From TrEMBL:
Protein keywords: Membrane, Transmembrane, Transmembrane helix
Protein species of origin: Parapedobacter defluvii
Record-given protein name: Cytochrome B
Domain of life: Bacteria
Ranges annotated as spanning the membrane: 6-25, 46-65, 85-108, 120-142
Length: 154
């Protein structure tokens, strides 16, 4: 179960990143060109937030069964000084929670803005902040914090 969830979480990361990049691109493009906020843009906003929430739920499930997190929680005094244990037990999870909150707020605010340009601007700003938090908190293969493979097998 753990290996399957880990592989799925790793795979969905790419869907989240692609969705966020596309949503941010559309938001800036619409903002700077004064385009009408279309049904397609509403769909992008909605589905991007939805995929982020699905990934977060997978992350919570993974957090609950991870042996690394279990070690961190039961050996906090020692584990807080170990980079991998601290990253997954505390840093990664808190930063991703923050990113989900930022993206959710941005999606809700954009949905309720009265003008198209305000919708695009709100979506652009909040989704960009969420994307930057996510990009800095993923355990990339080149990350100085901790690293994991970019693709995991099932």
């Amino acid at each position: 179960m753990y290996v399957t969830l880990l592989a799925l979480h790793s795979l969905i990361r790419w869907v989240v990143l692609a969705g966020l990049l596309f949503a941010v691109f559309r938001a800036y493009q619409g903002w700077f060109t004064n385009r009408k906020f279309s049904r397609f843009d509403h769909s992008i906003r909605h589905w991007t937030a939805t995929v982020v929430h699905i990934q977060f739920l997978l992350g919570i499930a993974l957090y609950a069964i991870s042996p690394l997190v279990d070690y961190f929680l039961h050996n906090f005094r020692e584990a807080v000084h170990q980079r991998d244990a601290r990253f997954f037990g505390m840093e990664h999870s808190l930063m991703m929670l923050l990113a989900v909150v930022v993206i959710t707020i941005g999606s809700a605010k954009a949905k309720r803005r009265p003008t198209d340009i305000e919708k695009y601007r709100t979506m652009a700003v909040w989704f960009t902040i969420g994307l930057l938090i996510i990009l800095t908190s993923i355990p990339w293969i080149f990350s100085p914090f901790t690293n994991r493979p970019n693709f995991r097998s099932f």
